[in-house]
Amino acid sequence: MTDKPKFMMQTYIRCSQDALWDALTDPDQFQHYDFLEQTAKRTDDKVTYFMPDGTVTLYTTDIEVTPKSKLVTSFEPTWAPDAPPSRITYEIAVEGEFCCLTVLHEDLNNDPSDGTGDGWVRSIAGLKTYLETGKPAHFGGAYLMEGM
Predict the structure, then answer these.
(1) How far apart are alpha carbons 79 and 20 in whole angstroms?
(2) Quick check: 2 pLDDT over 80?
(3) Percent with pLDDT over 90 in the chain
(4) Cross-strand partners of 34
(5) Residue 18 DSSP class
(6) Which helix (H) or strand (E) covers residue 125, if one does?
(7) Sheet arrangement for strand 70-77
(8) pLDDT (tens digit, 9 = 90+) per residue, 36-66?
(9) 46 vs 52: CA distance, rounded Å
(10) pLDDT value, residue 122
(11) Looking at the DSSP assignment, which residues form a beta bridge with residue 99?
């Protein structure tokens, strides 16, 4: 058990299990719902995330993959290069025509109120909107980028 901070949220999305799994694991879909409009590139079990200007912001590595129901990855942000990786768990449960998505971000190096929680809320809101409407959704990206 760890004493480090963590963040957890759940949401229900009207979509198929396949659609949600694909959105979480297909790097080509990430740009359609990420709040900073980042793109992603997968090489084997590693994913690299890029800002629109090409700057690398984040690396993740798959730790555990149970297709269509659970994905555990590392989280290695470039904005905190000396911090040890944290861990993200995505769990998908089908409930009728909805999927319940649970996101758990553990071993954080900062309190979730320092921006981590806000980032997750924006990202998952974008994911939900993208899957339910088929249209890209970026909540607050331009606003947040002004301060960077």
Answers:
(1) 28
(2) no
(3) 72
(4) none
(5) H
(6) helix 116-133
(7) 7-13, 98-106, 86-95, 70-77, 56-66, 46-50, 39-43
(8) 888 999 999 999 999 989 999 999 999 999 9
(9) 20
(10) 92
(11) 13, 94
| Type of residue at 112 | P
pTM of the predicted model, to two decimals?
0.90
**Residue 68: closest CA among 127, 20, 128, 28:** 20
23-29: long-range contacts at Cβ-Cβ below 8 A with a sequence spacing of 24 or more? 23/127, 23/130, 23/131, 24/71, 24/90, 24/127, 25/71, 29/130
Q: Residue 68's pLDDT band (boundaries 50, 70, 90)? A: very high
Positive or negative, the CA dihedral 76, 78, 82, 83 is negative
The length of the chain is 148
DSSP string, 38-67: -EEEEETTEEEEE-TTS-EEEEEEEEEEET
Q: Which two tokens stand for residue 140?
A: 């607050």
Tokens matching residue 138: 């970026």
How far is 90 from 121, CA to CA, in rounded Å?
Answer: 14
Q: Which residue has the tokens 């909805």?
A: 98
